[in-house]
Amino acid sequence: MAEPKWLKDMNPDDYLKEDFDCKGKGKYTVSGIENDDPEWLDKAAKKVNAAEGDDYVKLDCGLMTVNQLNWMLRNTFGELTFVDENNQFLWYNRPQDPNYKMKAKRVPAQVGDTMGQIHPDIRDVIPNAKKVVHALRTKEGGHDDVYMPVPTGNLKELVLHYYKRVEDEEGNYRGIYEWVQDLYPFVKYFCETTGQKLVVDPDATTGATYRRNSDPDAKTGASTKAEAAKMEEKPKVEEKPDTTTGASEH
Predict the structure, then answer these.
(1) Which of 4, 159, 168, 208 is 20 to 30 Å from the Cα of 148, by its Cα?
(2) What CATH architecture is 5-182?
(3) Quick one: pLDDT band at residue 11, thresholds 50, 70, 90?
(4) pLDDT tens digit sequence for 122-149
(5) From start to end residue, where is composition biased (Basic and acidic residues) (predicted)?
């Protein structure tokens, strides 16, 4: 993933202390059940007498049944997950289509797992995940969210991992929700609707690395800093004068 500079500059001695084994306890932690128990959800729900099915839930601005909440969230655009302040994975919006291939794959048996259990212990996966969690826990530099685009090998696919700090009414850290989605369909629809197009901005100072990693026909890496600087470009939106759509927008 492509990290923002403020995240790259964080001190490893700070963020590597994040407890990804859930040894602590959050405000709503359900104790007495092994985190990696594949039946954690059913056992935890039974232990706390959780609402389900046709039970009503009073929200801050609504009244819905658990079924209605599930239906709505399963049809929400994008993949959502929630991890609490104890770094325990508690929920994701399971896709309505069982054949849908998730961009950030999750399975029901993972609910209840620690962050250490749901992330593979290869390369820098766990250190990087700890960095994001610690940054949002501490509001590093005043930031309460993190954008991380993922090069996919296809410039017509822009997969974004968006992480947002979750707070209670008093501003206390209560966890993180993650939203994962391919943004390109939005960009494509915007261009088609407004009659505009994407072009490379020769004056930009960002974007070249992403395009190199997303274009299988591009040369890999710049041999000099000068070449790298020259290649640092980004797409911008420009009017498309010969279009037959979007005239009323101009």
Answers:
(1) 168
(2) 2-Layer Sandwich (3.30)
(3) very high
(4) 888 999 999 999 999 999 999 999 999 9
(5) 227-250
